[in-house]
Amino acid sequence: MNEPATSDQRLAKGARSRASIARHAADVASVEGLNGVTIGRLATDLGISKSGIATLFGSKESLQLAAVKAGRDAFVTEIITPSLNEPRGLPRVRALIDRWFAHITEPFFPGGCFRTAALTEFDSKPGPVRDALVADHSAWLAFLAEEIRKAQAQGELPGVDPDMLVFELDAVVSAANTARQIGDDTKVTLARAITDRLLNA
Amino acid sequence: MNEPATSDQRLAKGARSRASIARHAADVASVEGLNGVTIGRLATDLGISKSGIATLFGSKESLQLAAVKAGRDAFVTEIITPSLNEPRGLPRVRALIDRWFAHITEPFFPGGCFRTAALTEFDSKPGPVRDALVADHSAWLAFLAEEIRKAQAQGELPGVDPDMLVFELDAVVSAANTARQIGDDTKVTLARAITDRLLNA
To answer: To 10 degrees, the CA torsion angle through B53, B56, B61, B66?
Structure first.
């Protein structure tokens, strides 16, 4: 009679393994790029057999897609969810940008914001991985634009085009991330000054 | 007595081969990333023996460095040199930005601006290739900042921090390049509106 429980346990264990492998895949992607995410590399890093990883993920592409999802999940947990505790409008928009910058100076992935690197890596390579990256990026920008529209509905950020503001914020924060990874922290200060100016418009 | 001439011809032929291989390496890097630039890949693409390429370049890293240099040379030829015909000050700064945008909508590499992609690809990988990319990027931003300072010496762009303006221009144009590669041309229009606003400050 305990077979369902055992089966549930096995499923739960499989899901935990899957999640921890995907999370490591995102760590690797942040440093090496998504092309560095291979079944062989993860097997070596984690001391798991290649066939074990292949059973859980199937292919390199599935593993890359799982890394993209792990990156998205971490971004939602670390940046979006806590910011929703702030009052809607400019305080929430500022909290989102603050947490985004915190992610650059103390990144939750060893190679920094992994979306920026992955997007430029895959921008000329059509396929499911690029589609997943574009969907993730678009969802984040649409969310941020919506929060800016809520601020505008309260009379904040008057006369600003939300899509243009979001594009500019994303461009500046992403460039600061790249500079920080290269070791140039001065660009984070410059980027902060620019986003402060944009949000005080 | 014609041995020196023959030797010169051989040198000249070697230099031409080297330049055309490096140029193709930059084409490949713009689409696949610099990690896609391998001796084997170039040999297949160009119908040259691997040993021929190895003789000219030595290693994958030298080939990647040659691709970075080919990218830089093309950027100087297509964007910087023609802009120097414009009067110094704002007209020259605007010409540089116009040509930079032209490079995004009609890129001289199949995968678009190859600097942006290569920088994010190598930002977490210390070594000679990253150093070369950072030097190339810094040289371009320093050149642009200097042209902005010349404009300011003429009373144009008052009250603007040239380093901040250059960082913001670079961030916005690079983000437009990534969006364009993904197939989203609307971001080029947004980016143009932003750079126009920044240069009319």
So the answer is: -110
Distance CA A85, CA A172 (A): 25
Q: Average pLDDT of A8-31?
A: 83
How far is it, in rounded angstroms, from Cα A154 to Cα A164?
A: 19
Using a CB-CB distance cutoff of 8 angstroms, which residues of chain A are in contact with residue B172? 167-168, 171-172
Q: What is the tens place of the pLDDT at every residue in B59-105? A: 999 999 999 999 999 999 999 999 999 999 999 999 999 999 998 88
Q: Is the dihedral of CA B121, B127, B128, B134 positive or negative?
A: positive
Nearest 5°: the CA angle A111, A113, A119 is 105
B97-128 pLDDT tens trace: 999 999 888 888 887 777 887 888 888 889 99
Q: Which has the higher per-residue pLDDT, B176 or A9?
A: B176
Q: How many domains is chain B partitioned into structurally?
A: 1
How confident is the model at residue A109, as a pLDDT? Answer: 85
- Minimal Cα–Cα distance from B38 to chain A, Å? 15
CATH code of the domain in which A157 resides? 1.10.357.10
Range of the domain at B160: 3-199
pTM: 0.88
**List of residues 6+ apart from A157 with CB closer than 8 A:** A90, A93, A148, A151, A165, A199, A201
* Cα B126 to Cα A122, A188, B30, distances in angstroms: 21, 20, 20
Residues B153 and B147: their CA atoms lie apart, in Å, by: 10
* Mean pLDDT across chain B: 90
Which residues in chain A (174-193) have CB-CB distances under 8 A to chain B?
A: 174-176, 178, 181-182, 187, 190-191, 193
- Can you tell me the distance from the alpha carbon of B156 to that of A25, in angstroms, rounded to the nearest whole number? 49
